[in-house]
Write a structure and sequence with these properties.
Layout (H helix, E strand, L loop, with lengths): L16 H14 L7 E2 L1 H11 L12 E7 L6 H9 L12 H11 L5 E9 L2 E9 L8 H4 L6
Parallel strand pairs: 1-3
Antiparallel strand pairs: 2-4, 3-4
Helix pairs in contact: 1-3
GO cellular component, one term: extracellular region
Protein name: SCP domain-containing protein
Organism: Symbiochloris irregularis
């Protein structure tokens, strides 16, 4: 799914944000006609503070947010973005339902322009969080912010 993106990026802080998560996001967004996201150190810091708590729960803060939790070889940025994009098949443009496709719609939300993500090893699991600004998933705005697959 993310041709041209590095396959590394376990979230251990040793890889670049672009290779870890910006490239997979932008590859996915391009398939839905959304512009590329830019990297935000502010959003990354926010995400890092969240995952460092080692609690798999949304912050309910000012940004859009996606979370992913995995262990072992599933704990990669590629798998996190793939899991969120996996909700695309549940998206119904005539009746958008945040509960079943909100991760997908946030990734491809055309109104979001920047992203920052972080991961933390929390015992057996790794928690991944991405923050988006401006946030997505506003009722009544799906039609103009979630494009059709062009892949």
């Amino acid at each position: 799914m993310f041709r041209g993106c590095p396959t590394t990026g376990s979230g251990n802080g040793n890889d670049s944000p672009y290779g870890n998560y910006v490239c997979p996001h932008n590859t996915a967004r391009a398939q839905y006609g959304a512009s590329a996201l830019t990297y935000s150190a502010t959003l990354e810091s926010y995400a890092q503070n969240l995952v460092n708590k080692c609690v798999f729960a949304h912050s309910h803060g000012q940004y859009g947010e996606n979370l992913y939790e995995a262990s072992g070889n599933l704990a990669t940025w590629q798998n996190a973005v793939s899991a969120w994009m996996g909700e695309a098949s549940s998206y119904d443009a005539s009746n958008p339902n945040y509960e079943v496709s909100g991760h997908f719609t946030q990734v491809v939300w055309k109104g979001s322009t920047s992203v920052g993500c972080a991961a933390a090893n929390c015992g057996e699991m790794t928690i991944f969080a991405c923050e988006y600004d401006p946030p997505g998933n506003y009722e009544g705005q799906y039609a103009q912010n979630v494009g059709s697959f062009t892949g």
